[in-house]
Specification:
Number of helices: 7
Largest sheet: 6 strands, mixed
Strand content: 5-15%
Low-confidence stretches: none
Helix content: 25-40%
Mean pLDDT: 93
Radius of gyration: 27 Å
Structural class: alpha/beta
Shape: elongated
CATH class of one domain: Alpha Beta
Number of strands: 6
Strand order of the largest sheet: 2-1-3-6-4-5
CATH topology of one domain: Ribosomal Protein L4, Chain: A
CATH superfamily of one domain: Ribosomal protein L4/L1
Distance between the termini: 15 Å
CATH architecture of one domain: 3-Layer(aba) Sandwich
């Protein structure tokens, strides 16, 4: 698949052939869904906790004798039906982590990138750079590259892109992400993916 390579002003400077094994891979919707559910589940902390009868303070003595009072038998004033009692069938600390083989996660990413490529949502730029780390400069560049669409900006893990990161932090419809941390959620949430040639090389190395 051939795409245009743009500069930061949105002007075409050359063309590039995207690797077919990554950007023209078979699209597996079920696999992408599984990877998305896994990522969202793994982000769930699972630190919720409630107290059962055994963890509520007090209630050690039987409220009244078993028989002869005319009232229902009770073993503890901290049972669930009492005010101040423990809770039943309520959440406790647990792990929501779901396992997924590495090759399946990679295949899901290739599927998502292939969907983006087929819909012309991949924007390749020769280099990402701004004269100074100013939000207005990055907004101008994004408008030239993607119009009003939301954008995921991929960068290599390189300190030379610090200006891009700082310029994008205050833009609600854009996110800067290291290409090493490319994930299914961000690919599906944002409309377009912007990547410099250096980030594309990382993607080739990780998914090719």
């Amino acid at each position: 698949m051939e795409v245009e390579v743009l500069n930061m002003e949105g002007q075409k400077v050359s063309t590039l052939e995207l690797p077919a094994e990554i950007f023209e891979a078979p699209i597996n919707v079920d696999l992408m869904h599984q990877a998305f559910v896994r990522q969202m589940a793994n982000a769930h902390l699972g630190t919720h906790e409630t107290k059962t009868k055994s963890f509520v303070r007090g209630g050690g003595r039987k409220p009244w004798k078993q028989k002869g009072t005319g009232r229902a038998r009770q073993g503890s004033s901290r049972s669930a039906q009492w005010k101040g009692g423990g809770k039943i069938h309520t959440p406790h600390v647990r792990s929501y982590v779901q396992a997924m083989p590495h090759k399946m996660r990679q295949a899901a990413l290739r599927s998502a990138l292939s969907v983006k490529a087929s819909e012309s949502q991949i924007v390749v730029v020769d280099d990402l750079k701004v004269a100074e780390p100013k939000t207005r400069l990055m907004v101008k560049a994004l408008n030239a590259l993607v119009g009003g669409a939301t954008a995921l900006v991929l960068i290599p893990a390189n300190e030379s892109y610090e200006g891009i990161v700082r310029s994008t932090n205050n833009i609600p419809d854009a996110k800067v992400l290291s290409a090493n941390y490319l994930n299914i959620r961000d690919l599906l949430v944002f409309d377009k993916v912007i990547m410099p040639l250096s980030a594309l090389d990382l993607i080739k190395a990780n998914l090719g």
